[in-house]
Amino acid sequence: MTPPTLPDDLAASLANNQAELIGFLETLVGFDTQNPPDERVAIVEWLESTLSAGRR
Fold it and tell me: Is residue 4 part of a domain?
């Protein structure tokens, strides 16, 4: 069974924006969501502002 392949435009976008994607993921993974527990909202606010800025 062969693994599925990405559509060409998506594969090209990922390849062309690899550094930006890695930076995004590093920031996302680096959020401390357990200390203090009520700070989980910070990651949601960051995601919202980052993703909405990308649509402009």
Answer: no
